[in-house]
Amino acid sequence: MRNAPPPLNGLLHLVVFTEAMARIISQRAGTDLFEVEALEPYPLDYRHCLNRVRGELDRK
Fold it and tell me: Where are the domains of the chain?
């Protein structure tokens, strides 16, 4: 993690931190670790991302 590139508005830092925590939890729990990725990446703009999530929740 010390060699991670500089964060893009904090997003990269969050992803690196989340992945590191997931690895720790997986190791301690003795479980497999896998990555879930959206077919279409979520927008980086907060309002656009929020609109997408609201639409996804409405379709449930």
Answer: 11-58
